[in-house]
Specification:
Elements lengths: L1 H4 L5 E6 L13 E2 L2 E13 L2 E12 L3 E2 L5 E4 L11 E4 L5 E2 L4 E9 L3 E2 L2 E2 L4 E11 L4 H4 L10 E6 L40 E5 L3 E2 L3 E14 L2 E20 L11 E25 L4 E14 L19 E2 L6 E9 L9 H7 L2 E10 L3 E2 L24 E2 L27 E2 L26 E2 L3 E13 L11 E9 L7 E4 L11 E4 L4 E9 L1
Parallel strand pairs: 8-15, 14-18
Antiparallel strand pairs: 1-13, 2-5, 3-4, 4-9, 6-7, 9-12, 10-11, 12-16, 13-14, 16-17, 17-18, 18-19, 19-20, 19-21, 21-22, 22-27, 23-26, 24-25, 27-28, 28-31, 29-30
């Protein structure tokens, strides 16, 4: 706070031209392609059995740069993983796999008899399995364009920060040169021999393609009287999705020319399993509704590609509920299209009728969140490591289980007396000055996303009116004007989000934000 009041910056992170020392964005002309081919066939084996088969092949080409101005890190081995690293210049940022074959299979079967029962063509069983591949997110991979020697990313502290503006304060270029950002490079390693240590963005020389194996099985039954029930299972397994780590906190021997080495590897997994139920009913030709309930569990090892786990030393400790995991999810949808005028008065329906009223109710249990200790100034393992938070060593029990808004709107809530009464602090000593390293923190005893946030409830509605126009030349007999009013969160229900996760905060467990309130949207459309 004193530094801020005294106008004294203590840290700067940015990209610099190593030749001039000036801040720069350094344009890169990136190239990448996606190729895909597929074949598909539906085979009607019998009148009540249809099989679907497909095969898709995809290739996500490596990232290149038009002028060959990309570089990646080649690690050393063993204890010298960081001290012996070199910068490989030119060529592909990394290699990608061409072995991306995704078979697809499905079936739909309406048995006449099953388990000794005559289903009278009212039962349908559907199932399927498929393999799908995905391109690595370029918001992640294109971080590689910031590596030296074409560009340097620097994390500057104290006296190394140049606090100055361009000669013309109204322009946003020609920033003054910072002497510590002017660098020369070792021809053998590609690392700078002078100036501030750099931050590197690194990838394995060959990146596995993220892949998801998905499967489902459901049954649908006509209950009669326009009632239809569905129950089913849906699941998926994801392999090779991206996670991020700063390798400098994982090794004892640091390279003094590399302040941080952000490593993006495709070695994380995810799992999804869900029970799906649905009930639909058409009361008449004018009104129908649909109710759905899902009981699900979604776990992973880091939901966001930029996620760095609070304990990056063993991926086992990253296992936890996905950030968007919802155990119970309810949905109720309905639409009413009344007809007021018929017969000889049908012309009045064009003027006064043609109304549609629809609504959808969404309700689900809360999203998960992770309690943390956030008191280390991002100096764990070594000073300026960017390693900031730790999960608790243990949970002592006794917290409440009220997931209404009230429990998340006032201090205490489910944690009366404060978070420190419910969790024990791990060992997390401040690290020494870079490039020395200190001991690693103790392993957490509380899992990622172990707590649940408040319930969610929302109702959206739509009111639509269509005006039919008389038959006219050019416009024809189907000309109409449609007016539509959409009401999002029509009852202005407060839904809270973003929990205060710092255990030592007086607001621990409170919601810091709310989702959007009521929004009304008006639309008009003319068609003919």
């Amino acid at each position: 706070m004193w530094d801020f009041a005294n106008d004294a910056p203590f840290r700067e992170n940015g990209y610099f031209d190593p030749v001039t020392g000036q801040p720069t964005s350094a344009r890169k002309d990136i190239r990448s392609m996606i190729y895909g081919f597929f074949a598909q066939d539906d085979w009607k084996v019998r009148s009540n059995l249809t099989l679907n088969f497909g095969l898709r092949w995809e290739y996500f080409t490596p990232i290149t740069e038009k002028n060959d101005r990309l570089s990646n890190v080649v690690l050393g081995e063993g204890a010298n993983t960081l001290t012996d690293l070199v910068i490989r210049q030119g060529g592909n940022l990394f290699e990608t796999s061409k072995n991306n074959w995704g078979p697809q299979a499905g079936f739909a079967w309406s048995p006449t008899t099953l388990l000794g029962h005559d289903w009278q063509n009212k039962l349908v069983v559907r199932g399927g399995f498929g393999v799908g591949y995905n391109k690595l997110q370029e918001a992640i991979t294109l971080n590689g364009r910031f590596n030296p020697p074409f560009l340097t990313e620097l994390n500057l502290f104290d006296a190394d920060v140049l606090y100055a503006v361009p000669d013309d304060v109204n322009q946003f270029f020609n920033w003054p040169s910072n002497p510590v950002a002017i660098q020369t490079f070792d021809s053998a390693t590609g690392l700078p021999t002078s100036g501030a240590p750099v931050t590197l963005q690194a990838f394995p020389e060959k990146a596995d393609t993220p892949v998801t194996y998905r499967y489902s099985l459901d049954t649908q039954y006509d209950l009669g009287a326009n009632w239809v029930a569905t129950i089913g299972y849906q699941g998926s397994q994801t392999r090779h999705y991206t996670r991020q780590r700063n390798l400098n906190v994982l090794y004892q021997n640091l390279n003094p020319r590399v302040r941080a080495l952000q490593w993006f590897s495709n070695d994380a997994n995810a799992h999804y399993n869900a029970l799906l139920t649905q009930l639909t009913h058409r009361f008449s030709s004018q009104f129908e509704f649909d109710f759905q309930y899902r009981f699900a569990k979604n776990t992973d090892q880091g939901t966001q590609d930029y996620n760095i786990d609070q304990y990056p030393f063993d991926i086992v400790y990253a296992n936890g509920r996905a950030d968007f995991d919802v155990r119970h999810n309810y949905k109720l949808w309905g639409v009413w299209t009344p007809t007021f005028f018929r017969g000889s008065n049908a012309w009045m329906e064009k003027i006064l009728g043609n109304w549609t009223i629809s609504g959808i109710l969404n309700a689900h249990s809360g999203f998960p969140w992770t309690p943390v200790y956030d008191k280390y100034g991002c100096n764990l393992v070594y000073q300026g490591s960017g390693y900031c938070q730790l999960r608790p060593a243990s949970y002592l029990g006794g917290a409440g289980n009220d997931y209404s808004n009230d429990a998340f709107m006032s201090p205490g809530g489910n944690f009366p007396g404060g978070g420190t009464l419910y969790f024990t602090e791990p060992t997390g000593p401040q690290g020494p000055a870079f490039p020395a390293v200190g001991p690693i923190p103790s392993a957490p005893g509380v899992g990622r996303n172990s707590q649940s946030g408040p319930h969610y409830f929302n109702i959206d509605m739509t009111l639509a009116k269509a005006f039919g126009l008389p038959r006219m030349p050019v416009l024809g007999e189907n000309a109409r004007i449609d007016f539509r009013a959409n009401f999002y969160n029509i009852f202005n229900k407060l839904n809270l989000t973003s929990m205060e996760a710092n255990i030592e905060s007086s607001n621990f467990g409170m919601a810091r934000e709310g989702l959007g309130g009521r929004v009304i949207e008006m639309q008009a459309r003319f068609s003919f």
